């Protein structure tokens, strides 16, 4: 069960860090890295709207991270939370990053995030499998 416990904690921490980065006070200074070629006035309606929208994404990540860490205290009973994180890493992670690449966002950053999400998916599947094996051998 140790692998799944630590997977929950590590992936939870990653989500908390990434979620915090989308909060407006941390996201605003790096806006032009987030959206290369930003052409709306800084401080204007589009700028404020974008920061408000991305804050919601950040809050989602913070909540997911908190639930993953909470799940680490009862890992086998919380497997559904692991599946949620894995599926979100596939859909909101890998597939969205591929979309962003097709839309013209910088390739190196998107590939780094694809690698991160792929690592979450693969290690999560291994952790779930190990937890299932561990549970069967102790039963």
Automatic annotation (TrEMBL):
<keyword id="KW-0472">Membrane</keyword>
<feature type="transmembrane region" description="Helical">
    <location>
        <begin position="80"/>
        <end position="101"/>
    </location>
</feature>
<protein>
    <recommendedName>
        <fullName>BphX family protein</fullName>
    </recommendedName>
</protein>
<keyword id="KW-1133">Transmembrane helix</keyword>
<feature type="transmembrane region" description="Helical">
    <location>
        <begin position="7"/>
        <end position="26"/>
    </location>
</feature>
<dbReference type="Pfam" id="PF06139">
    <property type="entry name" value="BphX"/>
</dbReference>
<keyword id="KW-0812">Transmembrane</keyword>
<feature type="transmembrane region" description="Helical">
    <location>
        <begin position="46"/>
        <end position="73"/>
    </location>
</feature>
<dbReference type="InterPro" id="IPR009310">
    <property type="entry name" value="BphX"/>
</dbReference>
<feature type="transmembrane region" description="Helical">
    <location>
        <begin position="107"/>
        <end position="128"/>
    </location>
</feature>
